[in-house]
C-alpha cells in the first residue's frame, strides 16, 4: 500500500474540491502557511462535467492557476474512471491533467476528507453535546447523517494522523428500548435487514417516520427528511417522536464506533441532517444512548461528542492535508495521478 510520505509537499497553488451529488465546492490553498480561500460553489447539474465546472468556477479568476488538485468524492475510488453516485459526472484524473494543466491529481473519499479536518477543529467549528473531555493525540471518529450515513475514523500513531474511511454506515441497527421494540416491526426492511443508513439518514428518515406513524396509529405522508424536520418544528407528534427515535439510534451507533476505535479524541457529527435536528441531539436522549454501553458506561462518559459547525468540513480537511501532508499518512495507491515527465 502506498502512503503519502513524510517531508512530501505539493506544487502550489492546490485546488481542493468537495464533489457531491448535488453541489461541487472549490477552494484554493496557495501555500503551506496560507488560509483556505473559497473559490465558489456550483450545482453539478449546471455543468456537463467537472472540467467545465473547474474552468468556469475556478480558472476564470485564479491567478496563478492551480498546479495540484485534491478532490473528495462520495464513494470508493477504484480506477481511472470515477463515477459519482448521485450525479452524471465521471471524474477522469488523467483528463484533468491533460485538459486543465494539473501536475498532480489526488482523489479521496468524502468522509476521509471529513476525517482529515478533525485534528484542526477549534472554537466555533464545533459544539459539544454532553460531557467528556478530548484527550489529545487520540483516535477520533466522524459520523455524518446526510443523504446516506457516512463514517470514518482518524487514528493517531507514530506522531502521524491516519484517516480510515469505510462503510460503517451500513452496520446493523436493532431495537433496544421498550419503545424501539414496539416500533421496529413497523419499519420497512431493505434487503431483508435494517442497517443504520436505512434509518439514520435523509433517505432513511421517511422510512422511520412511516414505522413510527404505524406504531402511533396515525396517518402521515412524510415523503422527505425536510418535511419531517419542518413538521417537528411545528410540534407534530409523529415527527417529534421520529426525531427522538432517530437521535437515540444515532447515539447508539456513535457509541458503538467510539468503542470500536476507543475514540478518546471525540466523536463528531456532520452531514446535512445534523444541523436540522440540534434540539433532539442536545435534549439528553442522544447522549444517554451514547453512554449506555454496559459494562463501559464510565469510559463512555469520558468520551466527548460534538456537532460540527464548520460550513465546509470536507474542504477544510483537504486543505489541512494540502498544507501539511507530512502530518498525515494517506493511502495513495490507485488514487494519485501525475503528469508524465517531458
Automatic annotation (TrEMBL):
Keywords: ATP-binding, Cytoplasm, Glycolysis, Kinase, Nucleotide-binding, Transferase. The gene is glk. This is Glucokinase. Belongs to the bacterial glucokinase family. It catalyses: D-glucose + ATP = D-glucose 6-phosphate + ADP + H(+). InterPro entries: ATPase_NBD, Bacterial_glucokinase, Glucokinase. The keyword Isomerase does not apply. It comes from the Bacteria. Its main location: cytoplasm. ATP binds at residues 17-22. Its EC number is 2.7.1.2. It comes from Roseibium sediminicola. Coiled coil: none annotated. Pfam families: Glucokinase. It is found in: Cytoplasm. Signal peptide: none annotated.
Amino acid at each position: 500500500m502506498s502512503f503519502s510520505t513524510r517531508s512530501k509537499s505539493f506544487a502550489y497553488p492546490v485546488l481542493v474540491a468537495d464533489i457531491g451529488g448535488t453541489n461541487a465546492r472549490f477552494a484554493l490553498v496557495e501555500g503551506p502557511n496560507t488560509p483556505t480561500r473559497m473559490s465558489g460553489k456550483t450545482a453539478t447539474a449546471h455543468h456537463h462535467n467537472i472540467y467545465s465546472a473547474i474552468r468556469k468556477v475556478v480558472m476564470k479568476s485564479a491567478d496563478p492557476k492551480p498546479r495540484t488538485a485534491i478532490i473528495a468524492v462520495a464513494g470508493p475510488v477504484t480506477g481511472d474512471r470515477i463515477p459519482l453516485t448521485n450525479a452524471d459526472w465521471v471524474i477522469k484524473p488523467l483528463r484533468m491533467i491533460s485538459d486543465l494543466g494539473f501536475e498532480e491529481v489526488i482523489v479521496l473519499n468524502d468522509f476521509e476528507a471529513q476525517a482529515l479536518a478533525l485534528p484542526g477543529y477549534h472554537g466555533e467549528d464545533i459544539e459539544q453535546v454532553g460531557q467528556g473531555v478530548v484527550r489529545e493525540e487520540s483516535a477520533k471518529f466522524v459520523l455524518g447523517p446526510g443523504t446516506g450515513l457516512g463514517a470514518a475514523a482518524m487514528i493517531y500513531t507514530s506522531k502521524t494522523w491516519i484517516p480510515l474511511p469505510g462503510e460503517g454506515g451500513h452496520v446493523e441497527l436493532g431495537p433496544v428500548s421498550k419503545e424501539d421494540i414496539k416500533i421496529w416491526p413497523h419499519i420497512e426492511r431493505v434487503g431483508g435487514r435494517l442497517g443504520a443508513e436505512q434509518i439514520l439518514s435523509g433517505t432513511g428518515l421517511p422510512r422511520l417516520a412511516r414505522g413510527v406513524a404505524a406504531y402511533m396509529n396515525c396517518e402521515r405522508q412524510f415523503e422527505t427528511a425536510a418535511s419531517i424536520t419542518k413538521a417537528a418544528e411545528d410540534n407534530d407528534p409523529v415527527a417529534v417522536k421520529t426525531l427522538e427515535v432517530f437521535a437515540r439510534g444515532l447515539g447508539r451507533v456513535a457509541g458503538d464506533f467510539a468503542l470500536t476505535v476507543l475514540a478518546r479524541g471525540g466523536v463528531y457529527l456532520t452531514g446535512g441532517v445534523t444541523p436540522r435536528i440540534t434540539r433532539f441531539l442536545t435534549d439528553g436522549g442522544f447522549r444517554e444512548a451514547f453512554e449506555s454501553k454496559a459494562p463501559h458506561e464510565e469510559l463512555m462518559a469520558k468520551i466527548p461528542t460534538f456537532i460540527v459547525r464548520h460550513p465546509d468540513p470536507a474542504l477544510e480537511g483537504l486543505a489541512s492535508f494540502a498544507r501539511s501532508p507530512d502530518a498525515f499518512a494517506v493511502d495513495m495507491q490507485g488514487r494519485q495521478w501525475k503528469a508524465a515527465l517531458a
